[in-house]
């Protein structure tokens, strides 16, 4: 079947055939880093940010090209004009240091080649770019072998191919099943993967948009929006890691979070009164179950009015927070954007007096029902409103609150459309538009205001913000949780590809409600969910108001013991996890990764949706079905070491491994180095004096390294250089291991005093060990495991082998 037949087949939700399309190029102009092309009813700018990131903006129907970006795009000064331009009879050719772009003159078509002349990407031959009234649309060719990742918080498998996805932030309380769409976040960033030439497309348009990844036609994919401009960025890889990293040059990386926020969080809708919170605190500490944060859901408020306290339930929040803080637990309070329309309520008065709320064009304030009843909604597109909101954070931080959980910020409203009327206006500092344009940015802008307010009021401490709604770039301000999941086994399974794709879409700090939000959890489900949660970036147990309790001890000792073990495991891995957060803050590469990111040439990994990597060395295979004591999993090529038994496995195949309730399969890639630390009840409980450096040796002639970042985990002092970077490297030859420690940056007074060196999978007897040339007398060696302690100040260890 040819492509035209495919395109015309049936009526899709947005029929391609009714669009106006770009005709032939009439003329063009080259200005600095861009090429501007004119067509009969349209114009197009191709603007280079780097040699392999370029932006395409279309104007149509007499409009001028609009270079204004959404708030997702960071201020950058990326510009590249070092290209060579050639005109041929039928095409214009632009050659950068990395790519060759060909623009067909007659029936406009953009093609992108790599330097070897391989075609990486091209517009679909029949349509390319087009518009239909306010709608703008792009059609791209694709090969069936290509895989699609990204798109943020979406249901389904890792590979998003074959379905139509909608970008429209939505409070989706109904069960999230395999094809539920949309959910709460809109991240219009798509990755087209193929092992040699992956690329990404970021569609910078905040209107309701769609990505059809082959559901309408077999040989093209397409994206469109109901308004705004066709404005997208092409981000070349060629590797998946490069695509993700380069995308972060456009929408930013997440800043380093406070380390405590990487610990375990306990939540429910809602813990109250104060005595219950105090009891909860006592139970965690009595049972020595690690915990770093409690979340306060809506019942802490007076009639659900934000920034108020129900004084009967919480007579003295300040004293309660002080006690929590003393015990190492941080308070995170929920905030919804709706402001109750109560004339005696300070916030409502302020909002009305200063014109802070969203209004219709005729001046009526938009009012709808949320938890407090009738509410008005702050217009976060205005900087004066964001400043007001930012200032409110101090009311809470003065009491001792350390984090804000922004919920219902799609915004949710209990009317038929579940959200704000799309005709409501947003003032946007003089560039006003309707809610159609700003809906997907509403939560994002609230989070921005919250983050900036917290940053200001927490005096040099890093804020923690958690959000439900968001748009591309949300990582700059907030962690994201995936909203109202259910206590279903299927929701452990669903969470994995969703979180992996969120990570690939810039959102490193993400997680699901462990145990499930709606419905009753049970011991086995909570145990399995906690096992996975321990390796997911954001680790919070949360459930809804009607659900039975699901704290770690709620289902009896058998489960409690295992749940505790896995929460402890999270803390054992915390140095490594924090280090991966640091890497994400530098490169945009997430810590929770699909295997395909580490093993791009392994076909088995292309749609592997039920196991994931934590960094580049730890493979986690959660159990997501009841009554299982085995799990099938896939180990890519190479040797792998079972974290629990230290047994060595040959990869490149599927395995069925034991996974009784107390065991979630975890494998470490042979050759890697992994720092692990002692048990902690909370971050900062005590100094980690001894850091375990676990070396998982591969066979001989093997090299390994690990770069460890370290700072105080709380302040912004790192911005002034107060941090350490230490590089650990080893070389394993047939008769020795040489291990080097290189302190590359050393400006922070490090807490570790010693390293406990553990060489796993060493199958030759160690004869002599020298530490900076001095012979070490104390070490132990058994079961292929060599252990000894050295002070952190040393530089070199030599182990002579038999
Ligand atoms: C929403 C949130 C949920 C919260 C509840 C009450 O459903 O998604 O996490 O507990 O509102 O505030």
From TrEMBL:
Domain Glycoside hydrolase family 31 TIM barrel intervals: 255-580
Residue intervals passing through the bilayer: none
Keyword terms, alphabetized: Glycosidase, Hydrolase
One annotated GO molecular function: hydrolase activity, hydrolyzing O-glycosyl compounds
Superkingdom field: Bacteria
Sequence ranges assigned to domain Glycoside hydrolase family 31 N-terminal in this UniProt record: 44-212
Residue span(s) of domain Glycosyl hydrolase family 31 C-terminal: 588-674
Domain DUF5110: 691-761
Any GO BP annotation: carbohydrate metabolic process
PANTHER family: ALPHA-GLUCOSIDASE
Family note: Belongs to the glycosyl hydrolase 31 family.
Protein name in the entry: Alpha-glucosidase
